[in-house]
Amino acid sequence: MASQTNVLSTHKANILTNGRTFQVSLSSTTASTAFDGSDNISDIGVDGTLAVTNGGTGIATSSYKNAIITGSVTAATNPFSVVRTGSGAFYATAQDGAAKFGTLPVPQGGTGITTASYKNAIITGNSTTANSSFTTVRTGSGAFYSTTADGAATFGTLPVPQGGTGFTTTSYKNAIVAGNSTTANSTLSTIRTGSGALYSTTQDGAAAFGTLPVPQGGTG
Description:
Layout: H1 2-16, E1 22-24, E2 41-44, E3 68-70, E4 81-83, E5 89-91, E6 100-102, E7 122-124, E8 135-137, E9 143-145, E10 154-156, E11 176-178, E12 189-191, E13 197-199, E14 208-210
Parallel strand pairs: 1-2
Antiparallel strand pairs: 3-4, 5-6, 7-8, 9-10, 11-12, 13-14
């Protein structure tokens, strides 16, 4: 009887001393083949939902297709949650705040507007408050400019202080653009070309065409 026991023990030891491998199948949720040491195991199934604290999400299903997985809105270690996709950008308005889909506000890098009343409209900052929603300006004839810092911009004839001429037409062909004869930084005026040189006899004086006098470097 003792001899038979020794033979069985030796037989079992020979099997267990052979190296075996174990492989988990993430696609399986059933138990593996019963392991007796005689072969490798490659069908070990998994069971349960991997928690956040172990590197998982803590969720197994979603109520929506194409849903976004986000952190829990209550605690960092709680299971994740799903957010239904929608029209617009996916954003939050505060650190650790709940994210949602919608029109991206100005503080988050958007415009805060979704439609324009005019085709080819220009998007500009709100005319009343910084960091509020943007507004649209209808395009028009002329330059797009503002006359003051933070002032509302408009389309029109560009004034002299903003680098323009202040006028849109001239009474003469080949006219010369000159400063206004009455006030600096006001609208410019035009001078009709004529025979001779264009000169002025005094500083800030009106310029005219004619025979260049001696004091201005001519012969008179």
